[in-house]
Design goal:
15% strand, alpha/beta, binds 1,3-dihydroxyacetonephosphate, 307 residues, 12 helices, binds glyceraldehyde-3-phosphate, two-stranded antiparallel sheet, binds zinc ion, eight-stranded parallel β-barrel
C-alpha cells in the first residue's frame, strides 16, 4: 500500500461518473474510521488535513500515521493539504510526503491567485504531487476569512485559470459553504455554472467543498445528549449525487464526520457514566465515522469498487 496522488483517481472517477470522497482528519480514530469504510467498499479515498489539523497533530506524525494506517488497513489513499494558505505551507507538506496539495488563493485578487497557484504547481509537479486550486468564494468562514455572500465561479475565468496555471483540479463556488449552517431557506446550487464549466473544460476534474449533508439524526443525537446545535442545514444528498455524475470528481466532507463522532461520543458518555477508558468512547466515535463514510460511498459518491 502506498500514498498516491489524485491523477489516476480523478481520471477514473470522471469516466465512471462518480466522485472520490475527501475526508478531513486530525486524529487516529477519524483516520481509521474513514479507511476501514473504504476498505469494506473497496473505494478510493483522499485523506485531507487543513493547516490547523496539521498544527494539532504535527506534520510528520500525520504523514507517518496515514502511511501506516493505509498499509495496515490495506487501502491506497492520497494525503492532501486542504486549503493551503501559501506557497511555504504547500512546500512544507510536499516535502513531508503529502501526495496532493490545495493552494487556496480564492480570496486574493485574480492575478495573484494565478501567480501563487502557478508557483505551487511548478514545484509540486517536480515531486509528482497533484495540485488543487479554488476560484470563486464560498459564503461563510474559510480559515480566517469570512464572506457573507457567495462569489460564484465564472466559467470563462475558470478556463483561463486552468490554462495559465496548469493546475490539476479546480474547486468552484456554486452555492455550497463550509460548516453546519449552509442555507437559511431552501437549498440551491448553481448547476448551470457547473454545466457551463464542464462544457468549456471537457474531462477536467472539478472539486466541491462545503459538501456535508448535515444529517438531522446526528444533530438530534448531539442535542439529546447535551449538545446545543440549532438550525443546522446541509446540502441535499440528491444534489451531491447529481454533481458526482457531472464533472465533480472530489467531494469534501468534514462537518458530517465531526457531527457523527460528537453525537456518538456524547451518547456513549451519557449512557456509560462509569466508563473512563478513552478507547471506549473514541472507539464509538470511530465506528460512527466508519458508518458515515459507508453511507457517503453508497449514496453520494458512487465510488464502490474504485480501488
Ligand atoms: O474547510 C475547512 C475544513 O473543514 C477544515 O477545518 O480548519 O477547522 O480544520 P479546520
Ligand atoms: P463541510 O463543512 O461541508 O464538511 O466542508 C468541508 C470542506 O470543504 C473541507 O475543505
Ligand atoms: Zn473546504
Amino acid at each position: 500500500m502506498a500514498l498516491v496522488n489524485t491523477k489516476e483517481m480523478f481520471k477514473k472517477a470522471y469516466e465512471g461518473g462518480y466522485s472520490i470522497g475527501a475526508f478531513n482528519i486530525s486524529d487516529l480514530e477519524q483516520l481509521q474510521g474513514v479507511l476501514e469504510a473504504c476498505k469494506e467498499r473497496n473505494s478510493a479515498v483522499i485523506i485531507q488535513a487543513s493547516k490547523s489539523a496539521i498544527s494539532y497533530a504535527g506534520i510528520d506524525t500525520l504523514v507517518e500515521m496515514v502511511k501506516a494506517a493505509s498499509e495496515e488497513i490495506g487501502v491506497d489513499c492520497a494525503l492532501h493539504l486542504d486549503h493551503g494558505p501559501n506557497f511555504e505551507m504547500a512546500k512544507k507538506c510536499i516535502d513531508a510526503g503529502f501526495t496532493s496539495v490545495m493552494i487556496d488563493g480564492s480570496h486574493l485578487d485574480y492575478e495573484e491567485n494565478v501567480a501563487i497557484t502557478k508557483q505551487v504547481v511548478e514545484y509540486a509537479h517536480t515531486k509528482n504531487v497533484t495540485v488543487e486550486a479554488e476560484l470563486g468564494v464560498l459564503a461563510g468562514t474559510e480559515d480566517d476569512v469570512t464572506s457573507d455572500v457567495h462569489k460564484y465561479t465564472e466559467p470563462d475565468q475558470a478556463v483561463d485559470f486552468v490554462n495559465r496555471t496548469g493546475v490539476d483540479s479546480l474547486a468552484i463556488a456554486i452555492g455550497t459553504s463550509h460548516g453546519a449552517f449552509k442555507f437559511k431557506g431552501e437549498a440551491k446550487l448553481r448547476f448551470d455554472i457547473l454545466e457551463e464549466i464542464q462544457t468549456k473544460l471537457p474531462n477536467y476534474p472539478i472539486v466541491l467543498h462545503g459538501a456535508s449533508a448535515v444529517d438531522q439524526d446526528a444533530v438530534a443525537t448531539c442535542n439529546q445528549f447535551g449538545g446545543d446545535i440549532a438550525g443546522a442545514k446541509g446540502v441535499p444528498v440528491e444534489m451531491l449525487r447529481k454533481a458526482s455524475e457531472m464533472a465533480v470528481c472530489k467531494i469534501n466532507m468534514d462537518t458530517d464526520l465531526r457531527l457523527a463522532m460528537t453525537a456518538a461520543i456524547r451518547k456513549f458518555m451519557a449512557e456509560n457514566p462509569k466508563e473512563f477508558d478513552p478507547r471506549k468512547y473514541l472507539g464509538a466515535g470511530r465506528d460512527a465515522i466508519k458508518n458515515v463514510v459507508l453511507g457517503k460511498i453508497d449514496t453520494v459518491l458512487g465510488s464502490k469498487d474504485s480501488l
